[in-house]
Design goal:
Residues 1-33 are annotated as: Disordered. Residues 9-27 have a biased composition (Polar residues). The protein is mostly helical and 33 residues long. Helix content is 55%, strand content 0%. The longest helix has 14 residues, at 2-15.
Length: 33
């Protein structure tokens, strides 16, 4: 998941972490909020 999470983090940032992948982007969640 770590390797896949990195590219998804950038994708979720653009989507506002609305994707279910936000669980892997816990580090990006506080930034989105």
């Amino acid at each position: 998941m770590g390797i896949v999470a990195r590219p998804q983090m950038k994708t979720n940032m653009k989507q506002g972490n609305r994707s279910p992948n936000y669980l892997s982007n816990i580090n990006e969640v506080p930034r989105a909020n």
